[in-house]
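Limitations
The structure tokens in this dataset are predictions for the assembled complex, not deposited experimental models. Users should treat interface geometry with appropriate caution, especially where small molecules or nucleic acid strands are included. An illustrative entry is reproduced here so readers can see what is and is not provided.
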Amino acid sequence: MEFDPFLLARLQFAANISFHILFPTITIGLCWVLFYFRLRYTFSGDKAWEYAYFFWVKIFALSFALGVVSGITMSFQFGTNWPGFMERAGNIAGPLLGYEVLTAFFLEASFLGIMLFGKDRVSNRTHLIATALVAVGTSFSAFWILSLNSWMQTPTGYRIEDGVFFVESWWEVIFNPSFPYRFAHMFTASLLTAAFLIMGISAWRAMRGVDGPATWKVMRTGALMAAVLAPLQVFIGDLHGLNTLEHQPAKIAAMEGIWETEKGAPLTLFGFPDEEEKTTHMAIKVPNLASLILTHEWDGEVLGLNEFEGETPPVAPVFWAFRVMVGIGMLMVLVGWWSAWRLFRNRDESRETQTWLLRALSVMTFSGWIAVLAGWYVTEIGRQPWVVDGLLRTADVVADHSSATVAGTLFGYVLLYLFLLVSYIATLRYMATKPARSLTLTPQQRAMNDAETAEGEA
Amino acid sequence: MDLGYWLPLFFAGAMGLALLIYVVLDGYDLGIGMLLPFASDDEKDVMVAAIGPFWDANETWIVLGVGILLIAFPQAHSIVLTSLYLPVTLMLMGLILRGVSFDFRVKAGDKHKAKWNRLFAFGSLVASVCQGWMLGAFVTGLTGDATSTLFAALIAVALPSLYIMLGAAWLLIKTEGELFNKAVRWGRMAVWPMGGFLLLISIATPLVSSAIADKWFTLPNAIGLMPIPITTALAYVALVWIFNSKQILHNGYGWLAFVALMVVSVLASIGLAYSLFPDIVLGQISIWEAASATESLLFTFWGAIIALPMILGYTIFIYRVFRGKATHLSYE
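Predicted assembly:
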């Protein structure tokens, strides 16, 4: 059977970037949480915060390592899979990636060493600063890569000569129209992912009875973050959607399953989009709501897919991914409020009375991942057939490898990633359920954990 | 000043420097990875602790090197990475395996530890061999014919021997006791294949590429270039001597072995740069033909001259913070 090498190249890139994004999503948010733990410890002297820091810094390090190695793969895959992209858009993509390496990668990778092992070798203040620098580094990294991605979605500040992009204004390239929205949306998504991760694992620990005071402090931190950030994210997501409507109407049409341009367009809640017949089967629709949400007018006109003949993204994956993202987002709002209410009222720290909350939170541990992946599928598949929106087609930049080569390496990557993902989750589970004491390796940390356990028993 | 001339030159230099730093720094941690199966379980922990705080940043240098290739020379980036698709992919898988094994081996529980140790060693070996293969293919201009394939195969086995030497030398700095003595033994064994390969490559390179032969063996250049092979040979002799001198090793001067290896690496890089210049892919494209638009290079240039000294500064800071012998079991 002969596969289309173009499809295989896309699948391979999608497999890599999907695997990669899982880990930066955690680390970007989690590092600020760690900084907060460190800060709380510095000001209160409460050992529980320090314990929380050293418990979570291990998970941070593991996630970071997976992010680094899969990120190295990404840096090579621009060249191995999409050489045409770098040849045409290298003048713009190159410097943005370069600034990411120069301002972020080294900062994170270098000071992570101090975060992990430097406690006894540097002062408390230097250790705090190192944590802050790693957090700043991860956020810088997000800044540059999202700037490049946003430029590919909403290109500005360029000129084209003989098919090659040149920069007219760096300011317009970096701060292109979709960048502020995408950055805010992704940064909040990272914090939410971290919030549900720390709540989920803490809940798991509480259910297994290996919790201490730090476990509940961490859970409350996550609950507060979720209660505030989840509704904020709905608001930011709406702004982002309106921005997309302005610049990439075809993507919105695919997200909403709107086939023909119409006034007073209904909102399709569920259904099965069919690209051949250009209709959505078994659609459940709310009259006029799409127009109201998108144009803020009852009878507003919404462009349909018919306007973009030959330039439409695949409808079904975008349509479905969007619903998955929104669904999880709404669930996060509800669970966020519920957990804040349950955890802050009376500071109830008992697994007997909190059973349902703990169950819900442990189910939601990786909900951020699913929402983030779904969101990225919406925005990336929604940009097709373009690699640079409206200017450069993905099919025109693909590398010329035999489908056997790409299929073989794709198979290898997928196997490797599945193995690593299973190992990662199994390891987190193992770390979460093991009593804290036996996890520690340095005498300082052992002493600290003993103190924490003693506090827990007292 | 003609920026269109100088900027590509600056970035070619920066790329060479980043890759040289990568070879030395990640070289020692890849080397330690390959040496891991020969150590006892306790020693394995110390060996990993000796590279724990550094490996993340070490690996970032290859991202910078490839990053500069991509930023400054996008045309060459496409040629190089498309031709080297297979070794690059295998190298990445090797780097992924070893990178994550660092963390998994201590976090996944004792019953899995042996598995992650093996994967760590295996990943290090695969990555090192693939890097040698890539280097060999690159030096011969990515032609892919029989001679250059043979040459690439030669470097594919040679580069790991350099990495193992770097690893052994790093252990002289970071360890003591029985493991230190083992590192000395490993170094004494690995130094001969490394020397053999160094000689073989020096002979084979001009034979494989007539363009490189012309650059080295025409007068008066040949005389001016003599210091490079002579100093390399001296550094190599010093290396053998250091590994066999109890006096040097047991008085805390083991770090000299690492210095000697750095000298060899620096000179080999200078030799390589001279062989290739002004081409970025030998016989195919020069650094000026492959370069990005001048305004793009200039934008990155400002970032690079501000950020690079800072990076070097805090890299030195990190190495100072973690100076001295590696403490037992500090990596987790």
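Some entries come with short summary sentences. For this one: Chain B touches chain A through 61 residues (CB under 8 Å).
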